[in-house]
Design goal:
By secondary structure, the protein is an alpha/beta fold. Helices cover 39% and strands 17% of the residues. The protein has 13 helices and 12 strands. The strands form 3 sheets. A 7-stranded mixed β-sheet has the order 2-8-7-6-5-3-4, with helices on both faces. A 3-stranded antiparallel β-sheet has the order 9-10-12. α7 links the parallel β5 and β6. It starts with 11 loop residues before the first strand and ends with a helix. It binds pyridoxal-5'-phosphate.
Length: 365
């Protein structure tokens, strides 16, 4: 029996995407198998972490890598690393900062909430957050004038949550930071490219292990070796409160192996097939119109279902009814105020398109 159903929870049909609130990714069978075996045996944890980190760096094409409990944990650990380096006394002293560098700079349009407030992840280390510019405008002089002897790092966010226009670009930020020797930490939690941001000048880049990579709950930091060494050392401090078990370390690594092996075009093809299949299933339902639209920055097609005035229900009501059913159908709801429900194909199985049609038929007729 499904372990969730066994404790009385409805099965979820995930048409929302890789969402943390729905458990992010369903891992591949080979990943689940490796995790089950890892959970049932012993290993020297220090050797496991060293080996996984080394191999992960190799697979990601990075100078070095540090696997973490999540991207949020990766941000805390990266900022802590920028504050302390590998100085154990400094690591143990956090959130009291012993060195002169105690400020972290963030552009105002990057102060995002991804389910929790990014600013809090930074402040949790003890760092003082310095927000620069305005939510709709940051210029190089804002960054230049905020940088000082007390700047420990700049955090840069790549995300659909962030304001993308009118902020400084990563190459701009990296160029200014490099002149002052200040590290740039990129939060690329949900992004797909493991090399791009390093190539644009980032010193550390943080990813979620359970988003694009498709692993169990985990995170990844890649970047420059001295900073990654300082990240690893945080396990003697804050990192301990965010630690990762042996089965998730193995699960992350197996998922990463599959991720770097996969042809991006194949995943994209699959997504498009499922989206088109769903569009066909919904074609003759009354009260709605459908169209396929690609994500603004990532190669993800989605089915947009517009709930029309004559449908007898609002988009909000349709979403609530889909969610209340069994199985519970979860959609992507950023555009609900415009009467649009988005169906994301990434975690959707082809046969689930029929379940969605049945549920929508009941709701709309
Ligand atoms: C999802 C997300 C996070 C948090 O990732 P977790 O791995 O779930 O902690 C952080 N930043 C951004 C931009 C995100 O999209």
């Amino acid at each position: 029996m499904d372990p969730y159903e066994s404790i009385g929870l409805p099965r979820v049909v995930n048409a929302a995407g890789k969402m943390t609130y729905l458990g992010s990714s369903a891992v591949l069978p080979e990943v689940a198998e490796a995790m089950a075996q890892a959970a049932q045996s012993y290993v020297d944890m220090a050797a496991l972490k060293r080996t996984i980190n080394d191999r992960t760096g190799g697979l990601a094409g990075a100078e070095a890598a540090c696997v973490t409990a999540s991207a949020a944990a990766g941000i805390v650990i990266s900022v802590a690393a920028a504050l302390t380096g590998t100085d154990l006394a400094a690591i143990e002293a956090l959130p009291d900062i012993t060195g002169p560098k105690r400020e972290v700079i963030l552009q105002k349009g990057h102060v995002v909430n991804f389910g929790a407030n990014l600013a809090q992840m930074i402040r949790m280390t003890g760092a003082r957050l310095v927000e620069i510019g305005t939510v709709n405008g940051v210029k190089p002089y804002h960054l230049e004038s905020a940088l000082s002897e007390t700047t420990a790092a700049i955090v840069y966010v790549v995300s659909h949550h962030a304001v993308s226009n009118e902020m400084l670009t990563l190459p701009q930020v990296a160029a200014i930071a490099a002149k002052r020797g200040v590290p740039v930490i990129v939060d690329a939690a949900a992004e797909v490219d493991l090399a791009l941001y390093i190539s644009q000048g980032a010193d550390l880049v943080v990813y979620s292990g359970h988003k694009a990579i498709g692993g169990p709950t985990s995170g990844l930091i890649v970047g420059r070796k001295p900073l990654i060494d300082a990240c690893m050392m945080q396990e003697k401090g804050y990192g301990r409160a965010m630690k990762l078990g042996k089965e998730n370390l193995i699960g992350f690594y197996k998922a990463l192996e599959a991720y770097v092996r996969q042809q991006p075009e194949a995943a994209q093809e699959r997504c498009l097939r499922v989206t088109e299949e769903l569009q066909r299933e919904l074609a003759d339902l009354p009260g709605i119109a459908t169209s396929i639209v690609w994500d603004a920055t990532r190669p993800i097609p989605r089915l947009l279902v517009t709930v029309q005035a004559g449908a007898g229900r609002t988009a909000k009501e349709v979403i609530r009814l889909l969610e209340a059913g069994n199985p519970s159908i979860r959609t992507r709801n950023h555009l609900v105020d415009e009467g649009i429900i988005q169906f994301d194909p990434r975690e959707l199985k082809p046969e689930e398109t029929k379940i969605i049609r049945q549920a929508l038929t009941m709701i709309l007729t």
